[in-house]
Design goal:
The chain has a domain at 7-99. The protein is mainly alpha-helical and 133 residues long. The longest helix has 22 residues, at 78-99. Helix 1 (14-22) packs across helix 2 (34-43), helix 1 crosses helix 3 and helix 3 packs antiparallel against helix 4 (78-99). The protein has 4 helices and 2 strands; from the N terminus they run αααββα. It has a two-stranded antiparallel sheet with strand order 1-2. Helix content is 44%, strand content 5%.
């Protein structure tokens, strides 16, 4: 398993863009390995925002499995804080995804399938008179 992050290549490498958006830029505290992010990128056609959402969805069950513990008067609830944080980040990313405009449809490349009289009506309409043909 590997961890890489090069700030100088941030604008050209989707892996580093995902790490940047998730704040997963320090090897000591990394939540994801390069292979995990690369797999998520391949599943989402290199869409960084969708990959971030997929990564957080993969991270939440891991966080939910970490137990809170109490030793005497000391209580550790790191899981709850980090879980709530990632749920909030996930909601923000989903709202950004919903606000993106879909791409414009491409021009059709095949032959048209619609034509006059395709419904079998033998009567002429106003645009089917000889002067329009």
């Amino acid at each position: 398993m590997a961890f890489t992050y090069d700030l100088s290549k941030l604008s050209e490498t989707p892996l580093y863009q995902v790490r940047f958006r998730l704040g997963d830029t320090t090897e000591d505290t990394a939540s994801f390995q390069d292979e995990e992010i690369t797999y998520a990128l391949s599943c989402s056609n290199n869409d960084v925002l969708r990959t971030c959402i997929d990564c957080i969805n993969a991270l939440l069950p891991r966080l939910a499995q970490q137990p809170d513990f109490k030793v005497g008067p000391y209580t550790e609830t790191e899981k709850t804080r980090s879980y709530d944080y990632w749920v909030k980040v996930l909601a923000e990313l989903k709202s950004k995804l919903a606000s993106y405009n879909p791409p414009i449809a491409q021009e059709p490349t095949g032959a048209t399938i619609f034509h006059y009289d395709m419904m079998g009506v033998n009567e002429y309409g106003p645009t089917h008179s000889p002067r329009y043909l």
